[in-house]
Structure formats: C-alpha cells, structure tokens
Specification:
- Helix 1 runs antiparallel to helix 2.
- The protein is built from 3 helices and 14 strands.
- An 8-stranded antiparallel sheet has the order 9-5-6-7-11-3-2-13.
- The protein folds into 2 domains: about 55 residues, no CATH class; about 130 residues, Glucose Permease (Domain IIA), CATH 2.70.70.
- It starts with 13 loop residues before the first helix and ends with a strand.
- The longest helix has 17 residues.
- The protein is of the alpha+beta class.
- Strand 2 and strand 3 form a beta hairpin.
C-alpha cells in the first residue's frame, strides 16, 4: 500500500523548478558556457524536491520514520510538548534527502504548536529546543501518545505543516515539508521498543522506528 498524492516532484518545489529552469534556458541562449552553473542548480533543485511514492508497512503498532535521513539520537528524555517522560528518536536530514514529512502512526491530532526560533545546525542537540520548530501531539486509537516535531536547520528557513488539531492522520500520510537540511524528532511512550540505532539510515514511511 502506498501514499502518492501528487507527481514524483513535490508541489512545494514547482515554483523553484520553474524559475531555475527558465534561468538555465535563458542563460543557455545567451551563452552556453555560462549556463552550466544554472543547470547544476536546476538539477540540485530537482533532486531536492523529489517525493516518490512509498510502500506503507501494515504491522500493528509499528511507528514509521516520518522522514528520510540518519538517526542521530535515541534516548530517554522529557517530551516538552506532550509533558511526559518519553523515548526520543531524532532523524537528521541533509540536503540530499527527501524532505517530505509523513505521519509515523495512525491517530487523532491533539495539538499543533509552532515555535519561532534560531537556525543552528539541526545536527546539534540544542536544535531541538532553540530552532524554529513545529510539534504535533497525536493520540493513537488505543490511547498512546506519539509526538513528532519538524525542526528547521542551518539552511532550512521554512517549515510547512498542513494539518491542525482534531485532524485524523494515517501512517505514511504526507502532512508537511521542510525546505532544505533539517531534522524530525519523534517522542515515543516509554513502553515502545525502538528498532533503530544511532547512525542508521532511515526512509520516510518504509523504515519502522519502533514498535508500540
């Protein structure tokens, strides 16, 4: 089963693709040699905004990765948005990862909180509390709470979130996008069994982060 709501290029990237393509074509007409950097930029924008369909695991209780990237943190901590002790799994995205964000579990959103902030390197610990971020606190059908937080990075300057409190999400459903390098923090119940380790590469939707 897959979630594929739009063509393989994310709709957030269409304006950037159109502008970079027009500039590259115009430069080619004017002077082919000078157009090479603009074609490189176009290819970079094209790969950055790719958003392929993903197969959705159907295991009961599976918590899916909300983003592509690398696991940089697995630890017990305090969930500052759900106000509880939790297990934190952080996924860092570089500029070559797919930046579409997808829901890790099925459930109903209890609240969505946006926080303006800094744009330090998303790989740093303090990014979770100091950077611009958007947190979603979601309750599953069996009453468990999963919080997932979009965190802006050094280059990322725009967090996009398309859901609100009261909305129902299904696992693998696309709910947002972060433009350029960033991270997503996932706060799990203490009873969850984590299936990944620091350093693991994960893929949005297809990788199981944990089991509830």
């Amino acid at each position: 089963m897959s979630n594929y709501p739009h063509p393989i290029i994310a709709r957030e990237g269409w304006p950037f693709l159109a502008i970079s393509l027009l500039l590259a074509i115009a430069a080619t007409v004017w002077c082919a040699a000078w157009s090479i950097p603009l074609w490189v930029i176009f290819v970079f924008v094209l790969q950055f905004f790719r958003d392929p369909a993903r197969e959705i695991p159907q295991q009961v209780g599976a918590v899916l990765s909300p983003a592509d990237g690398r696991v940089i943190k697995v630890e017990r901590t305090q969930d500052p948005y759900g106000h509880r002790d939790a297990i934190l799994v952080s996924v860092f995205m570089n500029v070559f990862n797919v930046h579409s964000n997808r829901s890790p579990v099925d459930g109903t959103i209890q609240k969505v909180q946006y926080f303006p902030g800094k744009f330090v390197n998303a790989d740093l610990d303090k990014a979770s509390t100091e950077n611009e971020r958007n947190a979603i606190v979601l309750n599953t059908a069996d009453g468990q709470t999963v919080t997932f937080v979009q965190v802006a990075g050094l280059i990322a300057r725009r967090i996009l979130c398309y859901v609100k409190a009261g909305d129902t999400l299904t696992r693998g459903q696309r709910y947002g996008f972060i433009r350029f390098g960033s991270r997503v923090d996932v706060y799990l119940p203490l009873t969850a069994t984590v299936k990944v380790s620091i350093g693991d590469k994960v893929s949005a939707t297809t990788t199981i982060l944990a089991q509830l």
